[in-house]
Design a protein that fits this description.
Rossmann fold; 2 domains; 8 helices
Length: 260
């Protein structure tokens, strides 16, 4: 009886090429997963410890206290008169996300804000965006996964950028909107990040109270207490922000008198 032996499976040239491709795909997928997990880990740590924010905070406390003073403070965005701001000549609105539009780490717009956000969209059209210290940040969201999730959930575009607030210039934001920062509004709940960034770069700055502090980490809660204490102290001392060119009286954009 004659036996015909087939070449061993692993020596077949087609299979060898196929195996090489499979190994390459597995290696590439593994690398992508590792990079995504590393970005998520850095984002989680970065949201708890903002080194750039700490360095800028030192600068604020020692030399630039006025950076921390918002042009106006409101309980939440429902108090903002978007029509009045548009009438004054403002062309776009930049929102922080966590505790300004959503509770921390959530993708869902906080229910009571829906009507105001929809009003903002109707007034400013596509000229509204989210500027976050996690989603859209090149270091923490390299594949835009978080930015796209937010855009899908709340229908507001997320600005892609390279530096965390309060560091960085307004260049990326100005490029996004196609106008000078003096015609933009920065809305956020953190004075050391959102307000300092906005004031440094010539925005109109609006400070909101946090929607919920229950989900915040211990470090963030402590920093927030320091922010609030310093803000109250400096306001009692009469410290004021630099005038906003388009809105000399910031209360013109508030539906009800703000409380701090």
């Amino acid at each position: 009886m004659l036996y015909t032996l087939s070449p061993p499976h692993h020596t077949h040239p087609i299979n060898r090429t196929s195996n090489t491709r499979i190994r390459s795909c597995i290696k590439s997928h593994s690398s992508n997963v590792t990079n995504m997990r590393w970005a998520d880990l850095k984002a989680a740590v970065g949201q708890r410890i903002n080194v750039q924010g700490i360095l800028f905070s030192v600068s604020v406390v020692t030399r630039n206290k006025h950076w921390m003073i918002p042009h106006v403070s409101v309980p939440d965005v429902t108090y903002i008169d978007w029509v009045a701001l548009k009438t004054k000549g403002f062309e776009g609105v930049v929102f922080d996300k966590d505790n300004t539009l959503t509770v921390p780490y959530s993708l869902d717009l906080w229910g009571p804000l829906t009507a105001s956000v929809e009003s903002c969209k109707s007034v400013f059209g596509n000229n509204i965006a989210v500027f976050s210290n996690s989603a859209g940040l090149e270091e923490y969201d390299p594949d835009d996964r978080k930015a796209k999730a937010i855009e899908f959930a709340i229908g507001i575009q997320v600005i892609r950028h390279k530096m965390k607030k309060p560091a960085g210039s307004a260049e990326e934001v100005e490029r996004h909107f196609g106008c000078d920062s003096s015609k933009l509004i920065m809305v956020g709940d953190r004075t050391f990040t959102d307000i300092v960034y906005g004031n440094r770069n010539g925005f109109l700055t609006i400070l909101t109270a946090p929607l919920s502090v229950a989900e915040e980490t211990f470090i963030v809660k402590q920093v927030r207490k320091i922010e609030q204490a310093l803000l109250k102290w400096w306001l009692r001392k009469g410290l004021k922000p630099e005038n906003a060119r388009l809105l000399p009286d910031a209360l013109d954009c508030v539906k009800e008198p703000p409380t701090i």
